[in-house]
Amino acid sequence: MLDYKKDFFEAINHEWINSKQLGTDQTHIDNFVEVTERVENYLYNEAKKWVSDEDRQPSYLNNFVTLYRQALDFSRRESLGVHPLVSVLNRYRNMSSFDDYISQLSELELLGLPNFLPFYVSPDLEESSKNRVWASAPGLIFSDASLYDEDNEQGKELLKLWGTCQSELLKEAGLSDNEVQDILTKIIELEKFLSSCFQTDWASVEDYKVYEFEEFKKFVPSLLLDNFFSALVGMVPNQIVVTDEHFWKTKAHELYSEKMWENIKAKLLYNVITMYSHCLTEKISELSSRFQNLIMEVKKNVYDKEKEAYGLTQFAIGSDLSYWYSNQILSAKDKSNVERLVNEIIKSYKYQLENSQNLPIGLRQYIVTKLDNLVVQIGGPEMSPHSKIHLSSDKPLLDSVSMILSAVAKSSWDKLLKTNVRDDWEIDSFTVNAYYNAQMNKIVIPAGILQKPFYSSDYSFEKNLARIGFLIAHEISHAFDIDGILFDKFGNRICRESEEDTVYFESLVNRIVSKYAIQGIEKYNIDNWQTLSENIADLAGFACVEKIMLEKSSGNWEDFYSSFASLWRTKQRPEYQDMSILSDTHLPNKLRVNSLLSNSKTFIEFYNLSEKDEMYLDFEEHIQLF
């Protein structure tokens, strides 16, 4: 056995890591991946039964089953080829000018088709019961804008590989060699133009600005936004919430112009092909994933078209499964157990806050009030879905997907005129994760994560606390991290920060940044600003469940600590680790575990660690949030 005093994560997980072999189509394995695969296989096998027996599924899943049957009709899909796509492609091909494009923007939006406008509906930050129109910026192929720099050799190689892969895809979709070359050249020109307005700093909730509509539309008079929004929702919005102000102030007027129209048109043609690629032939579907597979060094030995068909169906209309899945998987007893655990965690947080010597009194009371008003959702939606569309098996697969996209788009814009309800279910119940929604002051714990190895009624109290307990405590703590604290008990963004609060958070941030500043793994240094918010949640969540252990447990600390460490076991391809360290807001799992355990006085004393042990951290260097 490896020395747990040197590397607790490795000592606990070494045997499991060595026993695992990554498949050629896998980038990594961890508990989340394995449970997700188990959930997906369960849903996939049930869906196959529904397809073979028309009377087996509940009536509210009729659209799901119809779409899945269409996706499984491979002979029809191959015989149709790209024909179902032609009319959509021709719509874009036949746009004769920038003005012609502008005249179709609202119709494209309501059809769920690409229009290169980054507007969407989301809750108002300052009054979360209402929705507002938000404006972001068009996305890039590569999220790291520096890859487009002229002197970035890695970026040049990636763009070259991307171009090769997309060339094959577009040709297979029926475009001529000249058309393909022209489209890809213009897309890359567009990407480089847009990349100059993106910052690489990590965004926060502060990165937005509210503009009066009359002021905002001056940035892009060419878009005729009065006409666009009137056609969408029968009115123009009073305000627009802008998340990428630099883009709108410096680039938008140049982008949305006759000068850039051919570049926009090229991107629209490309987007519509990639959007529908999995609705067409087997080869087109494979080619659409080729670039991503190559950069992640993933090799698919066998193309499982039946699973691809299920994946398409779930992606397009999977939310219809939520009610069914949660009722199949989560018993009333398990839901009650999790509710009690959530209440215990909230109670522990409140006790720590009320007795804190670090937090200002006003801040303590504010956070306690948020916890008292926290909405807790466990399992899945309480009601079966009601669809406004009826899919017909007589239609081609692409037509059915188009109906779904249009219904989703219309539903999204309809929300602009509706009041938000905090307990509306927002995520698929089979999702293997949990999350906190600051704009609703709500924690959501789907049925998908309420199973082994995260939770089981068969597990000891210590094991459940170290696993699902920590995940819940971590998510709840986002209510009072550096971003969550800006939202009140109902999820409204407020300006309540006092001088005392500022001093506390500045001190906390400096201590945490300093603590993690020297963290590294293998050849990498970790960006401790990138992981700041998640590090705060980890410290708060772990301290919370450890305190519950002290009060409620029979004292089986070995079960608690080993269960926590094994929760985060993982095996990764180097390429996946490279990408994760650049983009993930969490620490790599080994650092995440060992850093938290080293910060625990109880852990150090239980394992009798001393200054000579690598897992030891002097008590004076420990961080206590409260």
From TrEMBL:
Residues 6-381 form the Peptidase M13 N-terminal domain. SUPFAM superfamilies: Metalloproteases ('zincins'), catalytic domain. One of its GO terms (molecular function) is metalloendopeptidase activity. InterPro entries: MetalloPept_cat_dom_sf, Peptidase_M13, Peptidase_M13_C, Peptidase_M13_dom_2, Peptidase_M13_N. GO terms for biological process: protein processing. Its cofactor is Zn(2+). Keywords: Hydrolase, Metal-binding, Metalloprotease, Protease, Zinc. Its EC number is 3.4.24.-. Residues 433-622 form the Peptidase M13 C-terminal domain. GO terms for cellular component: plasma membrane. Pfam families: Peptidase_M13 (PF01431), Peptidase_M13_N (PF05649). It is an enzyme of class 3 (hydrolase). Gene3D superfamilies: Collagenase (Catalytic Domain) (3.40.390.10), Neutral endopeptidase , domain2 (1.10.1380.10). This is Endopeptidase O.
